[in-house]
Structure formats: structure tokens, C-alpha cells
Amino acid sequence: MRILLLLLIQAAVAAAAPDQFQHWYKQFRSQIEFVLNNNCSEQYQNYLNKTPGFDPEYQLWYDPTKGSALTAPLVSCMLSNLPENVKANMASAGVILGLLPTMLSMLGSNTVDTAILARVAGRPFLSLCLALGSPAVLPDRPFEYPNVKALLGVDGIKKGLTIPKPGGRTWILISALEYIVALGAVANIVTACYQLGIQCICNYATEVTAQPLIWAFIVGLVHIGGTIALSLRYRVIRSPVGETHTVQPNWFRRYLIREINPSLYSTPPPDVDEIEESYLFLLFSWCVSTGAVVHILYGTMVLSSLLFISVQDALALAGRFLASVVCCRAVLAYELAGLRQAKAGNMGNGEGSETLELRCK
Q1: By C-alpha distance, which of 263, 248, 265 is closest to 360?
Q2: What are the angstrom distances between the C-alpha of 55 and each of 59, 74, 221, 355?
Q3: So what's the pLDDT on residue 244?
Q4: Parallel, antiparallel, or unpaired: how do β-strands 271-274 and 234-237 relate?
Q5: 186 bridge partner residues
Q6: Phi, psi of 266, rounded to the nearest 5 degrees
Q7: Closest alpha carbon to 359 in 193, 247, 204, 273
Q8: Quick one: pLDDT at residue 232?
Q9: Residue ranges in the chain whose pLDDT is less than 70
Q10: Distance CA 193, CA 181 (A)
Q11: CB of 214 within 8 A of CB of 237?
Q12: Residue 234: helix, strand or coil by DSSP?
């Protein structure tokens, strides 16, 4: 999964750059295009022709051997010729976008929840999709790790709502719906970040367009680290099912069965057993907690530095991010509640209904 994530980041970096200065958000599009074609046509042509200008004013501040030699003079010219009210509007939009990573982390999931889904429930692909569809992670306090056995205990079932468990093949529909929501959230985040990269300009790295995409993808590494930390602290116990002489499926089939099987329908549900703390676990736990904070800081730095976006467009964009986070959180909450309910043996309305035919070790 790490290799896949790195390939996605590399593809994002390679794909975003060619469309810079070609597309803009709706509200300021006409003003920006007018400035480009009338007030900053010389700098714009230098950018299109990849020939840095020779204005001493710009060469004093920008290294002509770097990519910013093409983009920074153009951005400076555009800002100089835009009205003050437009620049004030862009500054307000930067405040909204800068607060977005913190707000998303408050609504999103922490690394322990996604690690439970990936490691205990045995659904790592769904867990990764939910992590990428929610590009902010709630940080945990360093060196304080939650009690996973308590999180999977029956107390939450006694005090909370019971999830209905329809019989028959309903589990297929539930599983398909979970993947549709998760992949849809990922697609929404990818397109939103791609549009941010090509329709806005980062004021501290004007030649780089992939920073929003990098911010969105890096969160996957934080969640993968959280899964490793859980594996170093808890051992997953999966009870064998069926007759002892029955030939068990190979590892890929067992993984595939668990991956497509909603946690509510897991038979028998997995259990966890504590492992003695190690220095490696403490290191991973600290790195994950610190990485979550650094990720929020990086997202704030990137999003607050974006230029040429209005408050109206920023609010619409924030709504897209919030929708993805809420949907991913809902799927994850359903999975964790289903895992607790299956573990407690309380199947609610589904007691006595047909059990799932797919079983795995």
C-alpha cells in the first residue's frame, strides 16, 4: 500500500503542472483573464514560451535558474493589477481554507479507528479508501494509546443503538454501498485538490501545482503508520470455523472474504490480545501522533497560501471536503459498531436470520 500511495503522489505531481495559469475559479475568472491578456501579457508570454524575463526588478528576488523565474514575475504582475477589493476577498478565502484542515480533523477519524478496521476487521483496502477520502486525521496525545479491547467491548452495545442485520444476500448490497461511498469520497477529494492546484497559485511556491494533492495523499501514510502501531500492541485472534478437517482457503481467499464482508456479518468475529509494549511500538505511536499534527500544519500552510480564489468558491470547496469526511466517518462508524455488535453476539433484528455463507479463518 505504501508503494501504491507513493505512485499516486508521483502521478499527481507529474499530471498537475501543464494546466497552470490556464483555468481559474468562476467568480474571479473574467478579471484574472483580463489582467493576463492586457496588463501582464509580456510576463504571460514569457511563461508560455518558457523564457524568463530580464527585468532587474524580478531578477533581484527570483533565481532565474529555477522554475519560479517563469511564474513569480507573472504572479507579481497579476497581483499588482488586481483591484484591492479582489485581493481582500482572496485573503478572506485564504483564512477559510487555512482553517479547513483543523475542522476536517475534528470531524474525521483517528488512526486507531482506521487501524481497527484494517487490522482487526481485516478490511485494509476499505480502510485506506476511507483514510484518503477524509484528508485530515484527529491527533492522539503522544505516548497515550487507547485500549482497543475496551473499544471493542460490549459496553457500547448496551448503551447504544442496535444495528439491524438483514438476512439473505443483503450483506452484498451493504458492502457494495460502502465501497461506492468510500471511492466516491476519494474521487471527490482528488478532483477538488487537483482543481485547487491548477486554478490557484501557491504564494510561496508559485511553480508547484501538486501541493494540495500531496497533502491529501500523505494522510494515508499516517493511517498506515497507525495500523503498524496497532499491530505492534495487539495481536488479532481469528477463531477457526467449520470442521477441523475441512481444508481452509489460501491466504488470498481468506483476505478477500474478509475484505468484502461487512464487520456486522463476520462469523466468528475476531478478538484482540494485548502484546507487551516495546520501544518500536512507542516509536511508531509517537511518530503517528506527531505526523498527524504535522499533516494538519502542512495542510494549513498549503491551503492558506492559495491565491486567486474567492470566498464563495472557497466555501463551496469546503463543503465538498466536509461532505467526503462526513460520509467516510459514517461508513467507519457503521463498521466499528458492527464489529462490536458481532463480537458481543447481539445481532439485533438479525437474530435467527440466515448467516453469511462466506466464512474465513
Answers
A1: 248
A2: 6, 12, 43, 75
A3: 46
A4: antiparallel
A5: none
A6: -70, 130
A7: 247
A8: 92
A9: 1-19, 53-67, 154-161, 240-249, 346-361
A10: 18
A11: no
A12: strand
